[in-house]
Amino acid sequence: MGLDEDSLEYHRTDPPGKIEISTTKPTNTQRDLSLAYSPGVAAPCLEIDEDETDAYTYTAKGNLVGVVSNGSAVLGLGDIGAQASKPVMEGKGVLFKRFADIDVFDIELDEADPDKLVEAVKMMEPTFGGVNLEDIKAPECFTVEERLREELDIPVFHDDQHGTAIISGAALLNAADIAGKNLEDLEITFSGAGASAIATARFYVSLGCKKENITMCDSSGIITEERAKSGDVNEYKQQFARDVPEGSLADAMEGADVFVGLSAGGIVSQEMVASMGDNPIIFAMANPDPEIGYEEAKAARDDDVIMATGRSDYPNQVNNVLGFPFIFRGALDVRATEINEEMKVACAEALADLARQDVPDAVVKAYGDDPLQYGPDYIIPKPVDPRVLFRVAPSIAEAAMESGAARTEIDLEAYEEELEARLGKSREMMRVVLNKAKSDPKTVALAEGENEKMIRAAYQIQEQGIALPVLIGDESEIRQTAANLGLDFDPQVADPSAGDYEAYADRLHELRSRKGITRTEAGELIERDSNYFGSVMVEQGDADALLTGLSHHYPSALRPPLQVIGTDEDVDYAAGVYMLTFKNRVIFVADATVNQDPDEEVLAEVTKQTGKLARRFNVEPRAALLSYSNFGSVDNEGTRKPRKAAAMLQDDPEIDFPVDGEMQADTAVVEDILEGTYGFSELEEPANVLVFPNLESGNIGYKLLQRLGGADAIGPMLVGMDKPVHVLQRGDEVKDIVNLAGVAVVDAQKE
């Protein structure tokens, strides 16, 4: 099937459409229903009657946007009417929810009269925290938005006008920076003079471009003062009329620094691009076919053409989804009365700044593993970059507060963390640890320091103040890679081949001489194997923690730390733990990486150490030792081990958290089973520490939970070592390294 057929099937699959309403409170009992509706609902109604702002406290108003359209200018379809526009408005709702967790009612109004349209939206003001106008034709859209902004006390935003303006504005900030040009000096030519083009030109002036340097063309050519006087152009176009001779788009592009296309595909030739000034900036944003193709524009010049389009299959897509969800998120969260120019500028500047940062691996993978690095082919972030939410929305909120548009003040630092938590429980949990790490950073040695991911991680660790990273490896290679990546930092490097590390070799020989390692071999290991070098570095106190394993098998990466650093004084066994985060639950799974066939003593030790780890994440542990048996229902050697381990822990005065077992996995995590059949259990609530009977079951279990249960996994985190060591998995992303660095620092703080 083609795209059209696939889309029809996508939309008609039961249930039809793309959105639904779901409840946010329990509705399982008669009491639940009495609270949700009659008679209990009277209480919040009376509170709101006394103070209308309580609607934000007792209803969904504060997270609800109305997407309103009359279907008079839908995408590239034109005036197809209100009913036919509904799939587009539903789609807008999907984007609001997916990218900013904002709920939407789509409102399609069969009304062409702008005055009546305004009155209809005004009557719905009590319902919404904000209104997003969509697909209303020009020039009526200007009138509708202007009046609603004046007459409503909630944010009103016409995305067709301002979305492209803001996103392309962010691109312009970076393109001018890369081209070495000042905004106030840019000669800018517009092709198109509709709502989006006029709003974009206005916004560029807000960013610092000069209005007198903007030449706007419509289908009749350059908009001149002569044409304005003759009544040939409407009042909105007239504001960009120039006192220049009449001419064509080709005339307007000659010598221009910037071309902004918001018109029709294929109307710009290579000769027109060649006529522009040095290192031209071309935003050809007509969809689906740009004014000139990416390859054609690039081939038209020998110098550096910076090119953006509205398409996702070329670099620098100007995509409105980078703006409106996050603009409304910030505006709603400070209960803003409007979305003003200061807030729009803040959005563009935040997006421009984010494009200059190192790009997460997950974003790179989503775009085919092609490098994404600030430069001509990467001037605006990608829509799937999760950082857009907690970079842009706080900027909007701050601008709203500073400009007087906000009804309520918020703590921006706490707000950023709240936004990050919206992206998943794992981010919320990691934020607890990273904040602890930042309170007292420690030195973390990074083995395999020449690896690009390790270098990028070191940059982020240092930039965020999580730790003081030390990269182990060839110093010249590390510094060159950092420079090639465009990372603006001065890494601390320990180069085994260049420094005086004879003492490390002596210490390794001392520790391993009775295991067959000669002094010469110890020296070679220190110089050639960063795992041994890092292990001795930490053992000697020159670093507080070690991360390794990015390019080694787990057992071979774990071996040097075990040989050199060893387990804690009171611990005989290390273990590997994963933290799995679900929407409303966190579970620690052990042992998933180290002990193949543990006896009861090992199981008890693993449980004890995993409980300590849970508390570093501010989670009070409740531990279950798992089996295929429930509390003696099967009695054999395998079921006795977890049963004995549970008994040992229950008798241990140092264990101050509930432990029980052996029990089946569903018994451990389902409250009804624990409270019903096994009400005698030591666990009064479902377990959050699951200790598997052996390595095989632990590894299988965590991977099934992760893949089928939709959990995010953090780890493996190594517990029980004498000093903090964490062994990464091959293929881990930069964020995984940064997260484990935070865990290692908190471990070191405990030391």
Give a structural overview:
It holds the Pfam family Malic_M. Residues 161-401 form the Malic enzyme NAD-binding domain. Its cofactor is Mg(2+); Mn(2+). In the N-terminal section; belongs to the malic enzymes family. The protein is α/β, with parallel strands linked by helices and 751 residues long. It has five domains: 60-154, Rossmann fold (3-Layer(aba) Sandwich), CATH 3.40.50.10380; 162-312, Rossmann fold (3-Layer(aba) Sandwich); 321-424, NAD(P)-binding Rossmann-like Domain (Rossmann fold, 3-Layer(aba) Sandwich); 436-503 and 529-561, Rossmann fold; 575-720, Rossmann fold. The chain has 32 helices and 21 strands. The strands form four sheets. It has a six-stranded mixed beta sheet with strand order 7-6-5-8-9-10. The protein has a six-stranded mixed beta sheet with strand order 18-17-19-16-15-20, with helices on both faces.
CATH architecture descriptor of the largest domain: 3-Layer(aba) Sandwich
Structure class = alpha/beta
Termini separation comes to 62 Å
Fraction of residues in β-strands: 5-15%
**Count of extended strands:** 21
Radius of gyration: 31 Å
How many independent structural domains? 5
Question: Considering the protein shown, what is the CATH homologous superfamily of the largest domain?
Answer: NAD(P)-binding Rossmann-like Domain
Mean pLDDT: 92
Q: Low-confidence parts, pLDDT < 50 over ≥5 residues?
A: none
**Order of the strands making up the biggest sheet:** 7-6-5-8-9-10
Number of separate helices: 32
What helical percentage do the residues reach? Answer: 40-55%
CATH C-level category of the largest domain: Alpha Beta
Q: Report the CATH topology name of the largest domain.
A: Rossmann fold
Pfam families: malic (PF00390), Malic_M (PF03949), PTA_PTB (PF01515)
Protein name: NADP-dependent malic enzyme
Keywords: Metal-binding, Multifunctional enzyme, Oxidoreductase
GO molecular function, one term: NAD binding
